[in-house]
Design goal:
By secondary structure, the chain is α/β, with parallel strands linked by helices. It folds into two domains: 2-262 and 481-512, Rossmann fold, CATH 3.40.50; 286-471, Rossmann fold (3-Layer(aba) Sandwich), CATH 3.40.50.2000. 41% of the residues lie in helices and 15% in strands. It has helices spanning 18-32, 96-100, 111-131, 146-158, 160-166, 208-211, 214-221, 230-235, 239-242, 246-251, 286-299, 323-336, 350-362, 377-384, 399-406, 418-422, 443-457, 460-471, 477-512; strands at 2-6, 36-42, 56-65, 73-81, 89-94, 141-145, 171-175, 224-227, 256-258, 310-314, 341-345, 367-370, 387-390, 410-414, 436-438. The strands form two sheets. A nine-stranded mixed beta sheet has the order 3-4-5-2-1-6-7-8-9, with helices on both faces. β1 (2-6), α1 and β2 (36-42) form a beta-alpha-beta unit. The radius of gyration is 25 Å and the shape is elongated. It starts with a strand and ends in a 6-residue tail after the last helix.
Length: 518
């Protein structure tokens, strides 16, 4: 297949959040399956990794219609970086005002214009490619990501200039986070003022464009939609998780499914990881993990003792990640169990930072803190800690649980989002399962689950069987790519059938002189 991705960020050129990592690893895994994958993204002034790359001019002086009162154009260039056998080819949209002069990818008052321009320019470029016929490149499927690329879906489906060339090509959408719907706080807009999603998309320079919900329109008009886990695809049908979009999501629930993200198993590999004191594999890990645990305890100033259970938290210090539950549960847990140690890594809300600092003052021998982000420490923590706490309020994907298991740390999670798909409760009798979970959003539910985990921890042979289960899990991007491949093929077939029906319908109308209704 020829697959076109549209995304606002693509690693290694622009790395802001998890989306950029998806745009790096998923195309690579699809390339391994034999597909021709290409990406359309902005060329930011702060884009990295292009210093020694030679970008070719694919299309100069591309006129992108504003469609405003003056009916003017914005001038862009499309530059091309050819891929290789591993990496996808990338088309970079160049525009001085909206991309080159910006220090960051996001966070500007005109972000809605910037990403609507990205989408409209992509469509204009595709028109040029279509006219080239045999010399041009045409995708079998177009895969849009998040609200930034959702303008493409609305324009492609509802603008006569574009829908004629796109009508046979499935246009798909993956939502990585439903919270972000555009450059506007749509969740708190009064119901009577909310965008219904069906009005004509405003011009690039119109103030109305900012008030139109890009993600909602993407959901309504995409041929198919995925979230980043099967469980989250069910959760977003409820008001608790839908971020104000429950009505629109329920309308399109027949198009909605979930595909769990993967991790880079080459980078996250305890057998090759040079940052570890002792490398290991799933066949030989007991002694190595004990050495790594001692190294971790030493680095964080905790007593070196292989028998003391070491709990850890890695991530943002926010309510979403369940820090309120962690702090409340720990205050009771450490009082009763003096052998437990706890490490917290990550920055976030000041109130949680202060609460952890106060907790450390109360339990200085048991708690160690690193209250800032760090890209190297997580793997050392995963390789040495016994249990990783993830009592999240919501967690669409749950990548930390994947990374932790890759290094043999047992995840203890609240049942939500991707964590439901990742973690199966361990049964000490059958020795099946790869972690521990609870349902209620209360500190006592977390406390009870930690006690349950510690009971297993004391039975070393059974505990090692659990750790081996974690190390044996397959969460590679190759597995996720196969699911996406099936999803693409299904939607290409479905779109082909729909196009055939439409062509027959048009023929009947033409032959019988029937006027088409709007």
């Amino acid at each position: 297949m020829k697959i076109l991705f549209i995304s606002a960020e693509v690693a290694p050129y622009m790395k802001v959040g998890g989306l950029s990592q998806v745009m790096y690893f998923l195309p690579r895994s699809l390339k391994k399956l034999g597909h021709d994958v290409r990406i359309f993204t902005p060329l930011y002034g702060s884009s990295r990794g292009l210093e020694n790359k030679k970008l070719k001019m694919r299309l100069a002086q591309l006129n992108v219609p504003v469609n405003g009162k003056d009916n003017g154009f914005l001038i862009c260039n499309v530059k091309y970086l050819a891929g290789d056998e591993k990496t996808a080819s990338v088309y970079f949209l160049e525009n001085r005002e909206y991309y080159e002069l910006r220090a960051n990818a996001f966070g500007y008052a005109d972000d809605h214009i910037r990403f609507a321009l990205l989408c409209k320019a992509c469509l204009e470029w595709l028109i040029k490619e279509k006219k080239k016929c045999a010399k041009g490149w045409w995708p079998d499927v177009i895969h849009c990501h998040d609200w930034h690329a959702s303008y493409f879906i609305d324009l492609a489906k509802n603008t006569e200039r574009y829908n004629k060339i796109i009508d046979k090509t499935p246009v798909l959408l993956t939502v990585h986070n439903f919270k972000y719907q555009g450059n506007w706080d749509f969740k708190y807009v009064p119901k009577e003022q909310q965008d219904n999603g069906f009005s004509k998309l405003a011009s690039l320079t119109s103030p109305e464009l900012q008030k139109q919900n890009a993600l909602k329109r993407g959901l309504l008009f995409a041929d198919a939609i995925t979230t980043v886990s099967p469980q989250h695809a069910l959760e977003v049908l409820t008001p608790e998780y839908a971020e104000g979009l429950e009505d629109a999501i329920c309308q399109v629930r027949g198009k909605l499914s979930g595909i769990l993200n993967g991790i880079n198993v080459d980078e996250f590999n305890p057998w090759k990881d040079q940052s570890l004191k002792k490398r290991f594999s799933k066949k030989k890990f007991i002694k190595a993990r004990a050495i790594n645990k001692a190294d971790l305890q030493n680095e964080f100033g905790l007593q070196i003792d292989p028998h003391k259970p070491l709990l850890a938290f890695v991530g943002r210090l926010t309510t979403q990640k369940g820090l309120d539950l962690v702090i409340e549960a720990l205050s009771h847990l450490l009082e009763e169990h003096k052998d437990i140690q706890y490490i917290s890594l990550g920055s976030g809300d000041e109130r949680f930072k202060n609460a952890l600092i106060d907790l450390k003052k109360k339990f200085p021998e048991q708690i160690a803190l690193h209250l800032s982000s760090d890209f190297n420490l997580p793997r050392k923590i995963f390789a040495g800690a016994d249990i990783i706490l993830m009592p999240s309020a919501f967690e669409p994907g749950g990548i930390v649980a994947l990374e932790a298991q890759r290094y043999g740390a047992v995840p203890l999670v609240r049942k939500t989002g991707g964590l439901v798909d990742i973690v199966n409760d361990f049964d000490p009798v059958s020795k099946k399962g790869n972690g521990f979970s609870f349902t209620q959003k209360t500190p006592w539910a977390l406390y009870d689950t930690i006690i349950r985990a510690l009971t297993i921890y004391k039975q070393k042979k059974i505990w090692y069987a659990l750790v081996k289960n974690c190390l044996s899990q397959d969460f590679s991007w190759d597995h996720a790519a196969k699911e996406y491949e099936d999803w693409y093929l299904h939607n290409i077939k479905k779109r082909s059938q729909i196009s055939l029906i439409y062509s027959i319908w048009r023929k009947i109308i033409k032959e019988n002189g029937i006027k088409k209704s709007k």
